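Worked example
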Amino acid sequence: MQPITDEIYKNLYFSSVEKENTMINRESYLSQLIKLRDQDLIKVVTGIRRCGKSTLLMAFRQYLYDNGVQKDAVLSLNFEERENARFTTWEEVYDYIISQLPDTPKRYVFLDEVQLLPHFEKLVDALFVKKNVDLYITGSNAYMLSSDLSTLLSGRYINIRLHPFSFAEYVASFPDEHDNSRLFRQYMNTSCFPEAVNLSRTAPEMVNAYLQSVYDTVVVKDIVQRNKLRKFDTLQRVINFLYDSIGSVVSPNNIADTMNRTSGQQLSHNTVLKYLRYFSESYLIYPVRLYNIKGKRLLASNYKYYAVDLGFRNLLQTNAPTIDLGHKLENVVYFELLRRGGEVYAGRTDTGEVDFVVMKHNGEREYYQVAYTANDENTLKREFSSLRKIKDAYPKYLLTMDFDSANIDGIRKINVIDWMLGR
């Protein structure tokens, strides 16, 4: 396999920020696609709308061209594009794809937002059984993986979860800005969607309007229309409740009881449960299960929830930038942990909690506490307390905005900006 070199990267278009001659390397995601090339698996790239799925596949296609694949052996269809609305059945799409590709030892097929096609899973299955077809698909709704596709293709696909920009990618978008502390505050209080980042450099007054359009599209198309909902106001109140409760343990009963007291409406536990599933499937929120560290088991009820982009939370909550910084920081750390790989849980001990427990693919673990600051002795003691009670030898970290670093009783206190930039 050819390594990813600067020569390869110079021709790639990693995000809309390229318009301003600032190229953002989404290297970790592209590297995964390169490693999976020609493997007997369907590569599924999922993530919220406008997080860069199509651009990532465009970059990978360019990699294929740069490494000797002829352009006529590559076919790409985006089912959000108007010209592809002519396809009404999966059979039509299949026949078209086969007719357009040469009979070569390997052919590459890219299907963007394939879940918009009725019975798309049959198309995916029919293409997968063609042994000279290497198949890549994207989707903006986890419904795609919870539908007939997962049943039909169990064990035959691999899912790559794409998120908006990491802080390292965000920093790379502002090559003339050298104050990373200022950038980090901006990162927590604006948005990390690729196009929102581009707008924040060229037309910052338009960022909120763009975010509102993305949010409305996700809610209307991926939730309201897909699930034929009528009570939009109730749906909106539930998402506001979740965004206001980032980092807190909540349950459907807790949400229903609170909203019934404050709104005077009767909202059932089952309705809240459905809404939570819709939000999760559309990637507006990410649920995090609780893990009993001492008992080494997952807890059955209650979750924490985190917002896919803090720009949405800031847009809907209209809070001042200085409000709730601790939970915003926790939100940012959660998604960075997801990007770095492993299963991320919220930890529970007999007497307290650990913000995150990360289960790595090799069976190892990492423990993280997150605090905006721990400069005073009482706060430091409190944050260290839960970590100290964990008796295993796996790495333990306290991430803060403080500039000092320390290693106390094997627990490493690290500046979160340094950690996110890999320092």
Remarks:
- The two ends are 28 Å apart (CA to CA).
- Confidence is low (pLDDT under 50) at residues 1-22.
- The longest helix spans residues 207-227.
- The CA atoms of residues 188 and 332 lie 7 Å apart.
